[in-house]
Amino acid sequence: QRFSGGIGSKLCGTLEEARQAPAAQTAGTCGCNKSCTCTKSAVVFSDLYSTDLLPAMDGDTKTMTFLQEVVDILLAYIVESFDRETKVIDFHYPNELLQLNNWELQDEPATLDDILISCRATLKYAIKTAHPRYFNQLSTGLDMVGLAADWLTSTANTNMFTYEVAPVFVLLEYVTLKKMREIIGWPDGRGDGIFSPGGAISNMYAMLLARFKMFPEVKEKGMSSVPRLVAFTSEHSHFSIKKGAAALGIGTESVICIKADESGKMIPADLERRILEAKQKGLVPFFVSATAGTTVYGAFDPLIAISDICKKYSIWMHVDGAWGGSLLMSRRHRWKLDGVERANSVTWNPHKMMSVPLQCSALLVREEGLMQNCNQMHACYLFQQDKQYDLSYDTGDKALQCGRHVDIFKLWLMWRAKGTVGFEAQIDKCLELSEYLYNKIKDREGYEMVFDGKVRHHPTLRFRSHAVREKPLTLVHVAPVIKARMMEYGTTMVGYQPQGDKVNFFRMVISNPAATFEDIDFLIEEIERLGQDL
């Protein structure tokens, strides 16, 4: 009765068919593992194709039955993902996995039964990123409200370029970006912003805006119209800064890497020195990217000192807070981003520390209208000037993309469900687990912290595991061997890498809301078990 239009009567008809179905089937006939009279068993997917589903005539029942089957597969996978008795990964080498299933595309259509088999196979070999013992990447965990929002987003299947095709989503993006700017500390949440396909694109947007702000003629006349530009970033910064410079025609050689101290923080004195050197060579400094939560060390650059330098030399200051920006939600930890309110732009990825389903990355800009002026092309087939509503809500012309995915609803719905205090508690818990791990291994035999000092920055720990044996492996090989064994056993996953003169070490990331103290204990014991013969 709640459904409007004809869908209500159609659903009632489907339910009535189920009620009038023959006597109860044998338990499990429809996959429910219990006696029932549902119509699932009456639908033979091996005889059906996608053309039998909506919008096909009389495709209602078949569509709902098929989608219910898909949902059942998804729900089973979700429950399994949170079960610590299951594997994080069912690892196979690429050539093996290619042979296990027929992944090739065919000229003829597959049956819906084959489609369901493909769904099961895909999830069987997928990494369970929601698993409490998955620590491999910055983006981990699976939030149920965020998942529901993602399903709704795909069902709505619209584009974010105009209010006329995405009215609610455009308004939610407006409301959420304003809230995020308020949290950064910009007065009344004024400014601009956009959700983009990941932190790398958000960082490139920032560089694009910085260049346009200094030399607006570059939009029409290109790089030949401007002097040689140079950007500055920490030697520990994300590779996307150089990628952005390459994509924008500035060139990777025009990105000057500033020295970091032992803990991974940019050294302001070296930044100022390199700016002066560049200016003496006739180069034009236009962009400084500070990092709030470096990818490897989890370090926070000294934003106040960097902002003073940027102000002194009239340089755009960007803060790449893709990893660490979410600490702004925590009253206990937001001091690590002191000075962020002085930035011209900020990248913030809720799909990392806040566990919003991928992808969800925001670029926040302090100056309102700059994005529009920088990127607009006045496409008259989309952005007509005589529409009946406020055209400021047609946000597509300030984006580089034309087609833009709806990334906002996941974050907005999770924020409604948790409240700011819920995100704060989630983030504080991750920091607490990080400190717990540090205290467990700092003096533990067989472990070595990559650099000394208590956890002060972020839930990213760097440590090595040593196997003290008569014939130990070369240190560089220990982490890769243990990681390979983790994947083969499927018990847990944690990343590793070298950094500068430091050979391979484990990079432990704690952003999974499902992780507990017991999971940290398990990880330590599992590393020791897998490396006991090395």
TrEMBL record:
It is an enzyme of class 4 (lyase). It is found in: Cytoplasm, Cytosol; Cytoplasmic vesicle; Golgi apparatus membrane; Presynaptic cell membrane. One of its GO terms (molecular function) is glutamate decarboxylase activity. Transmembrane segments: none annotated. Its cofactor is pyridoxal 5'-phosphate. The modification N6-(pyridoxal phosphate)lysine is found at residue 352. This is Glutamate decarboxylase 2. It comes from Mola mola (Ocean sunfish).
